Write the structure tokens for this entry.
Amino acid sequence: MSKYALYLLGAVVLVCMLGSGLSAQTVQGVVTGTITDPTGASVPDATVTLTNSGTNALQTTTTASDGAYRFGLVPPGTYTIDVKTANFTEVRAAGIVVEASQTVPFNVKLEIKRANEVIEVNAEGSLVQTATSELSTQIDRATIENAPLADRDIFATLPFLAPQVTPGIDMLPTSGGARESGTAYLLNGSDDNDNFSEGAINVHPPLESVQDFSITTNSMSAQYGRGAGAVVSANQKSGSNKLHGAVYELSLIH
């Protein structure tokens, strides 16, 4: 084999290694459900629109022959769902909260159209996750802002809010009998693990930049790859139509 062929082979191997290292687990959520009529029969070809309340960005789809719809790439946030179809009253449901890597089931039963009216519904979050078998602890923005975090480090403190997470030898979070290296860290869906130091983290995001936080400790999807004990995921804010800022002072007494 010539030296040029060896160079080419080496370049291909390097690209493959970089590609595998940069592969990301999605932080997008999923919104799915079924549209039915008053008798419970499925409603095909209904137009379903999902609108982000913070940015006004929207996605639109139509129901299949069985009345099912699915939005597979939904950034975390609060949403409104509009359902329109002929001969039925339009339904608008507000306050649907989508969290990182979570599946939100939302079914809608339509009513026969009597006039030009819109039925408005205030959605309420389910207390039990029924869409997947994952055991996950979700931590919202209010908890992140008010929790007493040492050094303002979310990765060092928040994982211990999950019931199955305990400190390891180096006081880093562990779960399910795995070592500290069995805890996988994700930031915006990308690998945030320091592969040269067991259990260490590459990037510690500023506290104000974090939108939500989750710790998955059981039955993780294959998309997470290396998470043998737990998957700790932080999702940063993506922006909205309003300006925001923060000022803080941190005093450490040693």
Notes: The chain has a mean pLDDT of 78. The helical segments are 3-22, 141-146, 154-157.
